[in-house]
Every structure is written in structure tokens, then in C-alpha cells.
Amino acid sequence: MTQPARARPPIMRRSGKCCHANATCSAHGRYPSRESFLRGGRASMRQFPLEALDLAPGRLVEWRLQRMGEQAGSGVDGPVRRASFNQDKHFSVAEEGRKADDLFSSWLAIAFEVSGPLDRHALESALLYFAQRHEVLRCEFRRLAGELACEPLGPQDIGLAAVDVGEFDSTDELRTFLSDSFKERIDTLSWPLFLMGAVVRDDSSTVYLAFDHIVCDGMSMPNVVSDIQTAYAAYAAGSDVVLPTVGSYLDFAQEQRRRYLAISEFDGRLDYWKSFMARNGEFFPRFPLDLGIEPERTYPTVNEAFPLLDARQTAELESRCLAVGGKAFMGVLAAVAISLRETGGPSVYRGLMPVSERGKGDWLGSMGWFVNTMPIEFSVAEEESFAEVVANVRTGFAEMLRSIDVPFVRVWELLAPDDFAKRTWPFPVNFFSYADMRKCPGAENHHNWRPTTHVWASRSNGTSSWFQRDTAGLHMNSIYADTPQSRRTMTELRRTLQRVLLEISHFGTMPSPRDETTGSRVHGTVTTVNGPRRAEPGLVEWERAVSR
């Protein structure tokens, strides 16, 4: 089925001016420019700090979502809809933070290119089509009798107001304005829950959208660019928008609550979690390295992104994994576990892993928070070979998938109620996320659209890392609490991880144990100090880079 849109939807037009304040760039990590991004053939969607986005100057225009009806939900009949477990917990944290005057804020954003002179009305129409297409984007959230109600406006009850912000003469000014706007205006407790705009130039424009997490997840971002680019091209050509029908996240949330709201801590579907907790000693798996975090305290964040492997090295890594019965993500997770052990962690990996709940049906193209979070556990003992560790990952992952039924937030509430009452995870938690962006919707057009994604959080009491594969290779984005110890720890971990990944990709082996007397690493008949020094370009280049 398709969702045709024949006529351009009506746009509310309003001109306006606003100013921006100067600010110092707060990014602690830099990333290659868009030219470097394209190096190696074609671009692919990649996540890195907004402050590192190579954004050419231009005229900034915003489109602000407006209510056209008298009240929220005026265009949608039927019973009150309830938020998902993820949404409810996220909203509760925001409510409690506001009461305590200690707000935690975060956002997800995407930017992409529209080539040629901008057809402004076509873009406005495409943005409105996008908001009308996804019910969750039109929602307001309110507490009703203790439960979180999700009240959508009807598609006909929203419009857009265009605001000409003004000319920006430098990239730094633009990035500062966008960063400040996202931080100040993305608010879980206020509608609308996302922002839209474009930096317009004579020969191209950069379109951007920023969202509160309550209406989307990371895998929603490919749908944003695919929907808007497809609709823009259709409106600019005067033709229909033809996209597959998508399901509503609100329907997903309703079904989730129907199935799991009434379960108790004695439900057999929680046995996997209980077994994990018995071995782990508590609900959350701790990040095993020292970050210098004080209990019951959060910190401003560091947001860093780095390339780990180039395209050839990543392909070699995948070949090594396939040769021992695994997949690329299993090799990456094995390398993370090995690196944690080598920098002082345990010989058993325990961590949380987000898993998509979209499936391959109508949810695939939807906006929403389709993520469950599950614990995974496997051995990474020093005497085990790479093949054995990958087999352990494969077994642990299969066991996890057999028990993926119950939503994480519901399990948390049932099995760790004291921790559930807190506004943050109780301590630094071991977290691993992997996505292959070459397989997401619209990936075949990324070399023209040039999309980038960006994540930000105001405070943290731990660390989270996202690993992404694209056409240029394997990349890592980490957000962690800003302490001197965490900077040292995360830098050492990243360097160790890159060395381990290179070892696996080149030789299909794990780094050898250190010689107890010299501290050197032993590779057969070759002894290396301060990391590998085989006659491999990737390893040599890496050593030169980290020794600067």
C-alpha cells in the first residue's frame, strides 16, 4: 500500500526575526569534514557531535509546528491513548527533574543536503507531510490518573509557521546557534517535541531536524531523511508522494502495555533477567573501568567520535568473523570485551545492549522509540582464541534473543524497584550499541543526501558508546561524564580497542598476552612494545596517530 499526497498541504506563513548569542564550542572531539566524510567513494549516515559538523554559511529558516484546531486531539476520536513504557519513564525523569530544579536534557538530530536552488514551498510541504505521516510527532503528553496519556492532534490540525532567522556568515556561528536552540527548545514536557529548519544557499541547502527522545530512536533518523527527501522531490516535480504505509508508534505502545502492564515479578518471562542478576550480583551490569565518578552525582558530558577501521579493514574484520561462524557486530562486541579485559576489566563480559523491536513490517519506516534493552553475558578469558570468544558472543546473543519479550523499563520496575525510583541509572553501566547504516532505508541515496546524525545529553554519571558501520568503515561515538579519570580511561580504552580490531582484521587473532618481565607483547617470533609493529600499513598508521 502507498500513501499518496496529491496537493501540497497548506502552510501557515509568518516572517520573524531572532538573534543568537555567542557561545564557546563545547565539543571535546573533532571529526573529519564532509569532504573527508565522502572520501572512499560515497557517503553514509554517521553519528558525531554537532559541534564538529562542517556546515557552510547561509540564510537560516525555521519551520515551527502550529496547532490549527482548538485543542489537542481535536482531530482524533476514540479512547485516550497511553504512552509506551520507554516514553513514560523518560517523561517521569523530566517531571522529577523539573520539580527538583535539576533538569536533565537530551536530543537527537539529523542534517542532510538538498542540492540545487531550494524550492522553499516544496520543502515546507515535505516537512508538513512528514509531521502528518507520523502520529507520534503530533502528540502531546499529559498525566492522567497517574498514567501518561499520549494525545495526538489530527493530521488536519497542524500547520507550519516559517520564520526567517537571518544570515549567518560563519560555520561557528551556525553551529552555536543550532546547538543552543536544540538545548533550549527541545523539552520533554513541552509541545512541539521537535524542531525543523534549513540553511539556505544559492546552490544547496542543509536541512536539519532535532527531536526529543520521547518521539524517536536512533533508527528513526534514516526514516526522517528518506521521507522528507522523497516528499520534497515529489512536490518539486508537481507529482504525488509515494511511500509505503507505516504503522503508528501509538498502536505499538498500546499493544505493549496490554501485554505487559499486568505481569508480576514472578512471571516466567523474567527468568533470563533473574539468572543474569544472580551471576552479576545486581540488576545493572557495571562499567568495569574507573571513571572517577562519585556516587549519586552527575557530570557535564564529553562527546567524542573517532574512526576505528577504514572500509577495507572493516571488510577484513567481517571476513574473519564469518570464517568462525560469527557476524561483524559479534566481532566488534568481542573486541570491546577483549579491550575492557586488557585495560583492567574482568574475563566475563556483562553489559546492556539495545535491540530494535521494529521487525520488518509496517514499523520499519515508522518514527518512535522501538528499542528494548537487554543484558548479554559471555566469557572472554585470556586463554580463549578469537574463534572461541566469537562463539561465546554468538551463544550469549542467541540466549538473549530467546528472552527479549518483556520491555526493559517494565523489568527494571519489577526487579529493581529501588533503582527504578531514581532519575538516572545508579552507577556507570556497561552499554554497547551497534548499527550497520548501509542497510537502513534510503541508504542507496546517502551519497547524494549526505546525512549526518547527532546525539547530545546535558549530564551523565557513566558512559555510552555507539558503534556504526558505513561505507567508509567502522566508527565510534561516545558520550561520558567529564572527569579527568574518565578522559584517561576512555582514551586508553579507545586506543586499545583500535589495536585489538586491527589485530583481528589483519590476522584473525587476538593480541597475545604481555610478557611478564618486559611488558612487551609476544606475537610468535616477533616481540612488539607499546602495541603491534607488524609490516601492515593500517597498524603503522595507527601507531603514528596515537603517538603524536
Automatic annotation (TrEMBL):
Region Disordered, residue ranges = 508-533
- Kindly give the InterPro entries that the UniProt entry links to this protein: CAT-like_dom_sf, Condensation_dom
One Pfam family, short name: Condensation
SUPFAM superfamilies to which the protein is assigned, alphabetical:
CoA-dependent acyltransferases
Which superkingdom is the protein from?
Bacteria
Positions of the Condensation domain: 109-425
* PANTHER family xref list: FATTY ACID SYNTHASE, NONRIBOSOMAL PEPTIDE SYNTHETASE
Q: What is this protein called?
A: Condensation domain-containing protein
According to its UniProt entry, this protein's organism is: Streptomyces pseudovenezuelae
